[in-house]
Amino acid sequence: MAGVVAFLLMGPSYGEGDPARGRSIVTNRQVGLCLLCHSGPFPEERFQGDLAPDLAGVGARYTRAQLRERLVHPEKMNPRTIMPSYSKTEGLNRVAPNFRDKPLLTDEQIEDVVAFLASLK
Which of 5, 15, 33, 70 is the most exposed place for a label (fewest CB within 10 A)? Predict the structure, then answer.
């Protein structure tokens, strides 16, 4: 979490992220879990979600900073969102013991996802 806060305040601490790794995270149903709610330009992925906006063109709609903010603090855009904060570790309810005090994604993974989403023009 400290790395994300530093990035938001001072700039990238993990570079620009790797879009290929980001795509892998977004489409992996055990890591990013994005396709549980979102759909996108992933024809090879069956059973994409329809609860949240389609990710196609998301890089044309939002800046990298806005995409990052949506991953780190989604409640700021929508206080009633069901999207989790991928970096938050405190103030959570009903967290399994093996996931306590661990973010869903590392700071580096978040930057990889941002790089991939930004490429979806």
Answer: 15
Q: How far is it, in rounded angstroms, from Cα 89 to Cα 92?
A: 7
Looking at 4-8, 16-20, 40-44, which range is the least confident one?
4-8
Our measurement of the distance from residue 104's CA atom to the centroid of its chain's CA atoms, rounded to an integer in Å, reads: 9
What are the b/e assignments for 4-36, b being 16+ CB within 10 Å? beebeeeeeebeebbbebbbbbbbeeeebbbbe
Contact 3, 72 (CB under 8 A): no
Q: What span, in angstroms and rounded, lies between the C-alpha atoms of 72 and 43?
A: 27
Going by C-alpha positions, the residue among 91, 87, 121 that lies closest to residue 107 is 87
Please choose, from the candidates 66, 71, 65, 68, the residue with its C-alpha nearest in 3D space to the C-alpha of residue 52: 71
User: Length of the chain in residues, anyone?
Assistant: 121
Tokens coding 109: 């993974």
